[in-house]
Amino acid sequence: MRKAIIDYKKLTPEILQLLQDRYPGGYSDRDIIKFDDHHNNTIEAVEVRTEDTIYLVKVSSKLHYTMTNIEADEFEDLAPEEIINDFSEE
């Protein structure tokens, strides 16, 4: 299974919909996954899955706003390589 870390600024309509479906009332502290990246920076993210990919969406103060207020058509012109930052499975 492929894994990807994605920032809230680069959410696609599909990932945004997955987030809204998984966390309809918003996410809580117990939904947040914490891990260190390869630069030893602590990352906080929430997880959503598709059949072939696990997405870790970085948590920020603006993620909740994005989940509730961004329209899908704002993302139509983004290319996939602008959106996803892959990392290898361990």
Number of domains: 1
Largest sheet: 5 strands, mixed
Radius of gyration (Å): 13 Å
Strand order of the largest sheet: 2-3-4-1-5
Total of helices: 3
N→C terminal distance: 11 Å
Q: Give the overall shape.
A: globular
What is the helix content? Answer: 10-25%
Mean pLDDT: 75
Low-confidence stretches: 81-90
> What structural category arises from helix and sheet content?
alpha+beta
Element string (H = helix, E = strand): EHEEEHHE
What's the oligomerization state?
single chain
| Relative strand content | 25-35%
Question: How many strand units?
Answer: 5
Q: TL;DR?
A:
By secondary structure, this protein is α+β, with helices and mostly antiparallel strands.
List the helices and strands and how they pair.
Blueprint: E1 2-6, H1 13-22, E2 33-36, E3 42-49, E4 53-58, H2 63-69, H3 80-83, E5 85-87
Parallel strand pairs: 1-4
Antiparallel strand pairs: 1-5, 2-3, 3-4
Describe the protein in words.
Strands 2-3-4-1-5 form a 5-stranded mixed beta sheet. The chain has helices at 13-22, 63-69, 80-83; strands at residues 2-6, 33-36, 42-49, 53-58, 85-87. Mean pLDDT is 75; it is low at 81-90. It has 90 residues and is of the alpha+beta class. It has one domain (2-87). The longest helix has 10 residues, at 13-22. The radius of gyration is 13 Å and the shape is globular.
